[in-house]
Structures
1.
Amino acid sequence: MCGIIGYCGPRQAADILIEGLKRLEYRGYDSAGIAVGNHEIKLEKRQGYVSLLRGKLEGNVGIGHTRWATHGAPDDRNSHPFTGCSGEFAIVHNGIMENYKELKQELLSRGHRFSSDTDSEVFVHILEEEYEKTGDFREAFFDSVSKLEGSFAILAIHRGEEKIMGIKKDSPLIVGKGNGENFAASDIPAFLPYTSEIAIMKDGEVCEIERSSIRFYDMRGTPVEKKFRFVDWSPDAAEKAGYEHFMLKEIFEQPMAIENTIHSLFSRDFQIGPYPKIDIIGCGTSYNAGMLGKYFIEKTLGIPVQVHYASEYRLRPPIRENPMSVFITQSGETADTIAAAKLARSRGCPTLAITNVIGSSITNSVEHVIHTSAGPEVGVAATKTFIAQVTALYYLGMSVGRSASMLSEKTYSGLMDGMRRLPRLIEAALESEQRISSVSRLLKDSNSIFYIGRGFNYPVSMEGALKMKEISYIHAEAYPAGELKHGPLALISGGTPVIAIVSRDETYDKMLSNIREVSARGATVIAISHEEEVDDYADYRIEVPEADDLFSPFANTVVVQLLAYHTARLRGCEIDKPRNLAKSVTVE
Ligand code: M6R
């Protein structure tokens, strides 16, 4: 999983490429590089962040890459772009070339010398061979991509030509049309300061980009008509807007993320279901969103919902019934989730994806798509996309319930009112930031933190623990509070922090007992609760606004996000780019 960008126009390509790559760094930041060409191709690449590139290359056409290593160590040698033996071409690649070993073997036997351990480099060598046959860059590009298997978004340039050739298959590629200049990139924010007129490429499409023209083809070379459209993201939406980190900015954008998601969902008439059973599939935070969806749908509709990790779902043998299968992925590019969706579809399950990225790969693998409208999320730790996913799942449940007459009009409209109040609820929860920041001091030197909750607050605990370990590198575990005494309680000793999420619902009294149990073993209990009575049980309490059982998880989520954020900040962690992680995980 990597980010790629291409530029062709009157400006210095190096400047545009480096600026764009910085906005793509969420996709990987092991190394970065650019190639700029006119009469000759000049290259700069190195291990580490994009900011390490000097960008002093002259030229008006170029390509760039920011890498999350898969094949080959994250070092200078394996950084993109690659220029092959002749230096006539440069290429960047995002994805996996599955047949690269065979291709590399053949190329080696014909005298090609490789400079890296990557799968990607084979492509530039193939391009060199194909070009020798015809002397035509475009033709050579088509012939070369026809030899590839796997997933790829590739951009290539040729010495002496002001042209970029690109292909998309199972990895994203978006083309941006400017005024006398054109762009291509893995994601829209990369070129958003220059143009908001975009075309999203579909699998198997090739683009040919010059300063004042963009042409699209299918893989056989037949021209394809594509519509450009305007996106209404301001360039600022992809910047930090004064916040210290993208993650914090994105946490504070949650009222808007919900507002926009609700707005786009409510304007759509879902006639969906009824379904006797629902499967929800995702990874990481998307899995946790699925868990909240399960609690909501089971409670309001009584339909059984099973939530699966996408990587495990794929090991599942066919089962007798084909449940409605809902795939959640903010990026729409997670390899395990896409593979799971393809599997479910091949087995005849009705499939639906919830994703934040329009035109992302998952949308080609399912029958129905719900777009969340959280806006671009740059921080590797998912926050506003989680809230938007849960919002979409609630709405999905309500729509299924309504169209199958499982919800009365009164209940449905009560739920709609609750949904409409969500942005305000989140704003009220955000007001506790000061308090959360000071409580984080208690956590910053911990070795291990436990999160406990029951019912709806169990998935919130899971999400809290995931956020904490992801960005602060503190070991954190979530348990349904009732499970503690079945083993984990042995880990509680003097001063162990326990975050207890306590809502005034059917779980309330039991949660108070669970707090007593851990307190008795010396734990330091930090409760997230609206109830003042909890002060008698916990060592510290973070106030959350009062909310109905079904909606309190939204407010509690904000608190666990901020708790992780402030703890990581006090520890001086790289919050937006945690070690070893990347924003979208396109390997299995
Ligand atoms: O793009 P996806 O929603 O499919 O990503 C799934 C996970 O990789 C992702 O949620 C990951 O767990 C986040 N970094 C968590 O903050």
Note: Residues 283-286, 329-331, 334, 337, 380-382, 466, 470, 581, 584-585 surround 5-amino-5-deoxy-1-O-phosphono-D-mannitol (CB under 6 Å).
2.
Amino acid sequence: MGLYDELSIFTGNANPELAKAVCRYVGVPLGRMDVFEFSNENTFVKINESVRGNDVFIIQPTSSPVNRSIMELLIIIDAMKRASAGRITAVIPYYSYGRTDKKDQPRVPITARLIADMLQVAGAERVLTIDLHAGQIQGFFNIPVDELTATYLLTDYFKQKRLSNPVVVSPDLGSVKRARSFAEPLGASIAIVEKRRVGNQDKSEVMNLIGTVKGQPAILVDDEIDTGGSITQAARAVLEFGATEVYACCAHPVLSGAAVSILQDSPLTEIVCTDTIPIPPEKMLPNITVLSVANLLGETIQRIHTGASVGMLFRQI
Ligand code: R5P
């Protein structure tokens, strides 16, 4: 037993199904709480059970509607703090604004840092998250951050497919390390699509392919699929360079804007992702496969609660 006797799990409105699945794994009921918006768009939270002294985990990806999900999370944390929770962990399976993590042009914000500050001011004492856009975002926090990865869940799925001589492809220069970690358990080679973003709009263009994909099935690996533009362009490029078929794979299915029609028109055989973000039925294409991170999160929550190693987890779940 850890420092705090009772483990409680709560959720906002961003991904209650994932929270329920985590509760099933951990074996605790989902905490009772109302989280709703008044007609003036102010968010209200009421915790309907005592959390005094408890080890509280709040599961809330900051996914669509992004700003509302962030406000809900902050307000829930504030309510927990004022209700004398013993320790508050923000479980953020998907951390939005992760791409705004540096001042890479004049007069722009570092919003990923701002959100980190807001979470700490609200009262979060730990953060548990999955596949940040860049690992360095951990350093925006002055509280412990456990960053899990969905890589092994995804590579296990591809292992079962027994693709012949697959090549793992990074759809941009920023995801090369991720592609390397993905390729290793599969014993696959890697290739890199050289992409560049055009302005601040959701547009990118493919410039080159580094490595070889000829005659091989390709697996494109990214942290998220947002509008689907990057992955679709990369898929077309690897087919042009001779790949036999292309799979896409990511932790976070953001699927914003026209993503669904872009992906529908893409040459992708299958899109494999996780349930860090819920996919509404109208966006659920027949070739999308969703793997659940619930057990990974549940096991980690149990270990944080009992003070056991989390690092031990990576190759076990
Ligand atoms: C960017 O650096 C990320 O890793 C993804 O490549 C990006 O978020 C994908 O965006 P989209 O699907 O809109 O092209």
Note: The mean pLDDT is 95.
